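Support reply, case 0932

Customer input (verbatim):
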Amino acid sequence: MKIDPTKLLMVYSAVLTVGAVGMMSTGGAVAQSGGATSGKASFDTIDVKRINVREDDGTLRMIVSNTSRSPGIIFHGKERPHPSGNRGAGIIFYNNEGTENGGLTFSGQRGKDGKTSGGGHLSFDQFEQDQVIQLTQNEYDGRRWAAMIVNDRPEAPLNLDLLDEYRKMPEGPAKTEMAKKLAASGFGVSQRLYAGKTRDRASTVILGDEKGRPRIALKVTAEGAASIDFLDEAGKVVKSLSPTS
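Our regenerated output:
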């Protein structure tokens, strides 16, 4: 019997198609019934642009991404554009309710002018608020600073609808007033502690009051001069201590 090569190829293709559909159906059934198989996958190398880590019920808990795939602000599972436009590559953490809870971001590059810029930032957020603990460093145009920062945040959650409204407003008095309204509606911040190195290469510890006003400043300059300053509510030094005083 003479075999028609064309018909043989058609039969072969049909068998492969049925097998592929069966495998996809089985995989889909496993994913719908619980998510993971009983085994573990092992890879030597994985190249990805973004990874979303979720709970069994689908709640987002962590995103690892490159710059182009970095997320906006996710609050109760709803994503909005980030105020900075793009926060860069890193890891963003989310709480049990799918709301942003801190993150780790990093960058670094040499510009066409030969100057370097970059930084690294690890932060932890108050519930439904912004960062209250920061470990951060930054460099630009030959100047560098690095510090641990502790902030106070309002009890009220962030009003992201108000933030969206503010971002769409043109510059002017109305936007200035809206900025004050934002600060009073959950976007205010009071820096209570700064401990690190400043851009002028001084080692500095600054303690602030409830409103974020510096009240004590401990400093050692790059040249080695040490001092402790006590400040009033207006930021004026009312008393200063140094080895020579």
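We compared this against your earlier run and they match. Two observations from our side: The chain has three helices and 14 strands. The CA atoms of residues 202 and 221 lie 4 Å apart. Please reopen the case if you see a mismatch on your end.
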